[in-house]
Amino acid sequence: MPAARRCAAPRQTGLTLIELVVTMLVMGILALGVTGFLTFGTRIYVDSQAWQQELGNVRYAAQRLSREVRDALPGSVVVTQNSLTFRPILTAERYLAAPVPGAGNAILAYAPACCTASSCAPCEGQTLALMDNYQPVLREITSQTCQGSDCERVRLTLDSALTTGPFSAAQRYYLVGDEVQWRLDGNGDLRRNGVLMGEGITNATTGCDRSDLNDPDCPFIEVPPSLSRNNLVRLQWWVNAGDQNQRFVQEVQLENVP
Question: Is the pTM of this model over 0.85?
């Protein structure tokens, strides 16, 4: 009679302690890698958004300031360590006589934009500017008299007498607005007549040397004219966002020529 077969013990399945430890170690390394990658990517996104926002604010302010400076009265731009001021041009025309012979406080000119077909009364009280060797001569208009029924020409009476001139080779005169000031305060805020236009600018204005046209600390630099161009105003602002610190530079040419 054959011997009875012995039943083999069932094979056990699962992880050994060593395999479990190795698995947990590998999963931990993978988790750390994925977490670090996500953290790094999130940080890049946040810094990029912060930088774009700061740069966008500065770019908007620079574009507006550039437009205004291009329309500034020649010779009216004044630059200090932390500010830039100028007189904006409202309108411009040509004069026929400045001053009128026998009347040192009046000019004869083509009517400015504030005149209508029959009256120049809206011009009263506005500031008139003439150019004397690239220096503005400012006078207030006190009264006006139309020359002819259509008021194409007008005699403008001023609050004080003028010199003999001539004031401009092109015989131009301007009506200008109130003084505008752009200023960078100690908190890094850029303001136009006290209204916030940009922030986060980190120029060290106390170290600004305006005699050095390449001084990076000066937020505003006025570059003198040359034979090939008019005055330049250079805007240069240091902007900091996150871990980035970058210099923003833009040059604006004063386009109006007497």
Answer: no
